[in-house]
Design a protein that fits this description.
heterodimer; B: 5-stranded parallel β-sheet; 4-stranded antiparallel β-sheet
């Protein structure tokens, strides 16, 4: 419940300050527009549209998900949080917030992308839905712990995508592959190994986050 | 009266190769006001952060004990109140919202008479629904005291407690500290003579280099 109240605090703070929502919304529009303009009249293949979908998700996530810890550090309220909650509570609260934000962001991207790119047709909806959920979880978990690490550093803006790239690369590669498979209409059973890999990634990142956070959180 | 004890055991802190303080061995087991003095950069705030469990020492350890039981480091925040110049509360929320949010995150039930008393004591009852960003620096300082005392901590840690306060505000804080120290431990780190005069005993960090 304490983590839920921390999440609520972040949600109300976000509604009043618009730290992340504005940048995420702008990035979704800009990235999709850039792809649309660069493609022009050309017809892009189904697989390429599936890959570009996750590129949009990755870069949009990079623009806003770090705010969850960076905003506390920039406003100087990190000490306040350290004085009212255990490190696990803080991580859980921030994780819930980033999860909700990533889910909302990915839903918007999926609808926009489906409407603007006719080549993006999913034949195996069940497989794509599981990929979408596990992918959203993975991006939210990874970006939250990376945000906690970089919030203590000097050049936060540049460090976030640099540090995220190697950590998120295996996730993005498997997500692109699973999206391609779900566009082919392959059954869930045939893609089970990839789905298990995706689920394992999420579990590993979640465990590492809770193990590391105590060290990151203290001076 | 709270049975709270604080023990600093061979506490040493380095920043890189620079020694901040060395071999601090102190025990606070009686209720009262205790001082920590030293010039700017002598490590007063660093020591308070270590005591609060926010920062870690390079050597030695800090032991908090409540009712004879040692407190786990992750739970120290439940027993301490902390006021410092670098403590910043959520300015996008009102005083009342801050109180409610802090209480819920701490997991404590709202004690309305206690909250009303704190708001009255610190003169913020009339402005409790204003956002903190519209507060003066003195009002923000008084708000920090409400934040520190909300959960009735057994150990009150005060870093430069009278910063930004006018004479009337200072006198109120001194009165509160004296009353609070009757049944709790209060630690004050300051350069102000008037702050340190409240203390029954005091350590100078310059003597621990």
């Amino acid at each position: 419940m304490k983590a839920y109240h921390l999440f609520r605090k972040d949600l109300f703070s976000e509604i009043r300050n618009r730290y992340a929502i504005n940048s995420l919304a702008m990035f979704i529009i800009v990235t999709i527009s850039v792809i649309l303009f660069s493609v022009g009249e050309e017809t892009i293949s189904d697989y390429l549209s599936g890959g570009l979908y996750w590129v949009v998700v990755f870069f949009t996530g990079m623009s806003g998900l770090a705010r969850v810890f960076v905003s506390e550090e920039e406003r100087g309220t990190t000490l306040t949080l350290q004085l009212i909650a255990r490190p696990e509570t803080v991580l859980s609260g921030k994780l819930i917030f980033n999860l909700v934000l990533t889910l909302a962001m990915n839903i918007v991207i999926t609808f926009l992308y489906s409407a603007l790119f006719p080549a993006f047709v999913i034949k195996s909806l069940m497989l794509f839905f599981i990929t979408f959920i596990l992918g959203t979880l993975g991006i939210a978990i990874s970006s939250t712990i990376i945000a906690a690490i970089i919030s203590k550093a000097g050049s936060k803006g540049t460090l976030y995508p640099v540090l995220s790239f190697p950590i998120l690369l295996p996730l993005i590669l498997i997500l692109i592959n699973l999206t391609k498979i779900s566009m082919d209409g392959t059954s869930f059973g045939e893609a089970i190994m990839d789905v298990l890999f995706l689920a394992s990634y999420d579990v590993v990142m979640l465990s590492v986050s809770y193990l590391l956070f105590d060290f990151i959180w203290k001076d | 009266m709270n049975r709270y004890e604080l023990k600093l055991d061979s506490l040493t802190k380095y920043f890189g190769r620079r020694l901040v303080f060395r071999d601090l061995n102190i025990e606070y087991s009686q209720c009262g006001i205790y001082g920590i003095s030293g010039p700017n950069g002598s490590g007063k705030s660093t020591l308070l952060k270590i005591i609060a469990g926010i920062s870690t020492p390079s050597k030695g350890k800090i032991i908090h004990t409540a009712e004879g039981k040692e407190i786990d480091t992750a739970e120290i925040h439940e027993h301490i109140g902390f006021v410092s110049p670098y403590l910043v509360l959520y300015e996008e929320f009102s005083c009342r919202e801050n109180i409610e949010i802090m209480g819920k995150i701490r997991g404590i039930e709202p004690d309305e008479p206690h909250i009303a008393r704190l708001l009255e004591t610190f003169g913020l009852a009339d402005r409790q629904n204003d956002r903190l960003k519209f507060y003066s620096s003195g009002m923000k300082q008084r708000m920090k005291f409400i934040f520190a005392l909300l959960h009735k901590p057994a150990l009150l840690i005060l870093d430069e407690p009278t910063e930004n306060l006018d004479n009337e505000g200072k006198n109120k804080i001194y009165e509160l500290i004296k009353n609070y120290s009757a049944s709790n431990i209060v630690l004050i780190a300051s350069n102000e003579d008037s702050d340190l005069q409240l203390c029954t005993s005091s350590i100078n960090l310059l003597e621990h280099k």
